[in-house]
Amino acid sequence: QVQLMESGGGLVQAGGSLRLSCSSSGRIFSSNAMGWYRQAAGKQRELGASISSGDNTNYADSVKGRFTISRDNGKNTVDLQMNSLKPEDTAVYYCNCDYRRSSYLSPEFRAWGQGTQVTVSS
User: What is the pLDDT of residues 78-111, one digit of tens each?
Assistant: First the structure.
């Protein structure tokens, strides 16, 4: 079973930076899209950024120009560099990974991490 683990969250002042990392364990033959979602208190989980296996990126309008997503295909890890943080970025951040276990013909699954808290103070 594939497990994802986030790290790097914490408390930072507005205007500061944090770097989130997501590592994986378990059998992954190939990873496809990977991403970072976030969920603020009382709100639905929303996409922050995603990256394809070919390094095509997609960002929510609210984080464009401030966040940068990157991945290491060899290690099946994904990072999120967050700059110019705002109080509205406060949320639990979750990474995810779409992967195949044994071959390109095997079914695709999605794994989620348990989340890491990011708090931005004003």
Answer: 999 999 999 999 999 999 999 999 888 889 999 9
- Look at residues 13, 6, 71, 1 and name the one whose alpha carbon lies nearest to residue 37: 6
99 is written with which tokens?
């992967």
Dihedral (CA of 96, 102, 103, 109) sign:
negative
Pairing of strands 67-72, 91-100: unpaired
pLDDT of residue 31: 87
CA nearest 92: which of 62, 65, 114? Answer: 114
Going by the DSSP 8-state scheme, the letter that residue 17 receives in this structure is: -
Q: How many helices (H) does the chain have, and how many strands (E)?
A: 0, 11
**28 touches 6 (CB < 8 A):** no
Tens-digit pLDDT profile for residues 26-72: 988 888 999 999 999 999 999 999 999 999 999 999 999 999 999 99
**Spatial CA neighbour of 62 closest among 95, 34, 32, 40:** 40
